[in-house]
Amino acid sequence: QRLAAYMRRAIAPPFAYGLTDCCTTADKWIRQERGVSPLAVDGYDFANESQAAVAMEANGGLARATIKAMRRAGLRRTKSPRVGDVGVVEMLGRVCVAIFDGNVWIARDERGAIADARARVVVAWRICKE
Fold first, then answer.
1. Has residue 5 got a pLDDT over 60?
2. What sign does the dihedral 77-36-83-120 (CA atoms) show?
3. pTM for the whole thing?
4. Alpha-carbon distance 117 to 24, whole Å?
5. For 90-129, how does the pLDDT look when each residue is reduced to its tens digit (9 = 90+)?
6. CA-CA to 3 of 20 to 30 Å: which in 23, 25, 83, 93?
7. CA dist., res. 110 & res. 124, Å (int)
8. Within 10 Å of residue 26's Cβ, how many Cβ atoms?
9. Please, what's the largest Cα pairwise distance for the chain?
10. Alpha carbon distances (Å) from 115 to 37, 38, 45
């Protein structure tokens, strides 16, 4: 229920890089649940699409940048995602940082909230404590 409440709040505002993109949406969830911000730990700060692209490219792309930030934040990987876990997934023709609700992976993009039950998980991390 915490995740559902969080997602309702997270998808309400319009999409904006650095505020409501897929990375910051997941980062705010992690901060709420674990008290750590992987984006802040790794020094990511972007306010528009070109700044986000430069940050990701400088760190080997979205997947590598996310893996690095999550490792530095002390989060552990999981091969069996549960409700509230975060992953880098391929969904709807793109790579996103998404949150798993138990049935579908949910992320933000320019269209708003996007969800895919058939997303391919590249890597996932345990967020919610057991």
1. yes
2. negative
3. 0.93
4. 21
5. 999 999 999 999 999 999 988 889 999 999 999 999 998 7
6. 93
7. 23
8. 27
9. 38
10. 23, 22, 25
